[in-house]
Write a structure and sequence with these properties.
The chain is α+β, with helices and mostly antiparallel strands. Among the domains are: 58 residues, Structural Genomics Hypothetical 15.5 Kd Protein In mrcA-pckA Intergenic Region, Chain A, CATH 3.10.290; 175 residues, Pseudouridine synthase. Strands 1, 8, 9, 10, 11, 14, 15, 16, 17 and 18 form a 10-stranded mixed sheet that branches. It has a 4-stranded antiparallel sheet with strand order 4-3-6-7, with no helix packed on it. Strands 2-5 form a two-stranded antiparallel sheet. The protein is globular. The termini are far apart. About 14% of the residues have low confidence.
Length: 366
């Protein structure tokens, strides 16, 4: 009996033919593609124009490059920890009038006559050349010139002067605009310094970068202290808030293991003697607690190193938590989470300048 082979349906034949043409087209397009790696030798297919040795070398090079890029992405630059930038605290936009006033303040610039002359070391520091102390050393060494003459300590400069360090002209920046002020909620374990020998992350690494000036910290907080840190572009504002003669109040929330007696609280108000001199709280108030932990709210008018901790240690009480909640007229916002920052608006900065007795650009009023 004669058998007949069943024919495939025509649509299936057309699909098979199309698939074959598609594979041929892909092979043609990939003919001049990037060199193949050694993975193709695992399946037994030998690439044209590439020897096994070449393919292995290409695979090893590609793998090493990928590992290097991965390591560079994960490893800290310059041996430093990976920096996570602080997030800005969310806030509502002001009214149209407030926005318009802030825009005007942001655009306002002082004239050369209003800015006047500035001490050379201060102007150089503000221009980002280095710290004031470093600039004083440069000037004393005769490495700074103004309008072609070697400068001396105490020299003053103004806009338009030709200032050079080691013969190279410095692009000077001037305090001719409203300063910026940032409130940062410092976390425990962060350093308040610009350079750490161990390469650890500092609070300055967490702040937004500035192109025309630099952040100046208003006071410091030690490694294990959290809370309010203030940064500004005005060195005069920072000096006004931290210099001892202005007696700016600092308020802290303190948790200790143990409890102060009434007599000890009275002594802390009156003053006790520490290794570096007398110290006292202008205000101290018990805030309750649980078990062995007791909270206190304290206020003092100076900021010596570990002063609050040492005052409690004077009575053999260990501080287990310390948070700064206020510095002068600026208070830590309740919605400001740890590791976040809040930048004051132009109208708020102007109010701070008036409170500190400073001009719009941060200079002291005469």
């Amino acid at each position: 009996m004669k058998t007949t082979r069943a024919r495939r349906p025509q649509p299936a034949i057309r699909e098979q033919k199309a698939a074959g043409q598609q594979r041929a087209g892909l092979a043609s397009r990939n003919k001049d593609a990037a060199p193949r790696t050694g993975d193709e030798f695992v399946s037994g297919r030998k690439p044209r124009g590439v020897t096994p040795g070449q393919a292995f070398g290409q695979a090893r090079s590609a793998t090493a490059g990928a590992e290097r890029r991965s390591a560079e992405a994960e490893a800290p630059r310059g041996g430093r920890d990976v920096v996570t930038k602080a997030k800005r605290m969310k806030q509502r936009a002001g009214s149209q009038h407030e926005v318009a006033v802030q825009k005007q303040l942001r655009a306002k610039r002082l004239t050369s006559a209003q800015v006047g002359e500035e001490r050379l070391q201060k102007a150089l520091a503000y221009s980002g050349v280095g710290s004031r102390r470093d600039m004083e050393e440069l000037i004393a060494a005769g490495r700074v010139s103004v309008n072609g003459k070697i400068a001396e300590l105490g020299s003053r400069v103004k806009q338009g002067d030709d200032v050079r360090v080691d013969g190279k002209r410095v692009t000077m920046r001037w305090q001719d605009r409203l300063a910026r002020v940032v409130l940062y909620h410092k976390q425990e374990g962060e350093l308040v310094t610009r350079d750490d020998p161990q390469g650890r992350v500092t609070v300055f690494d967490r702040l937004p970068r500035l192109s025309s000036s630099k952040w100046v910290a208003v006071g410091r907080l030690d490694f294990n202290t959290s809370g309010l840190l203030i940064f500004t572009t005005s060195g005069d504002l920072a000096n006004r808030m931290t210099h001892p003669r202005f007696e700016m109040e600092r308020e802290y929330a303190v948790r200790v293991l143990g409890e102060l007696t009434d007599d000890q609280i009275a002594q802390l108000r009156k003053g006790i003697e520490l290794d570096d001199g007398p110290a006292r709280f202008t205000h101290i108030e018990a805030q309750g607690g649980e078990g062995m932990n007791h909270w206190y709210r304290v206020v003092l008018k100076e900021g010596r190193n570990r002063e609050v901790r040492r005052m409690f240690e004077h009575f053999d009480l260990t501080v287990s938590r310390l948070m700064r909640v206020r510095f002068g007229a600026l208070t830590l916002p309740g919605r400001l989470k740890r590791g976040q920052f809040y930048e004051l608006s132009e109208t708020e900065v102007l109010a701070v300048m008036k409170w500190a007795g400073l001009k719009l650009n941060g200079e002291a009023k005469e």
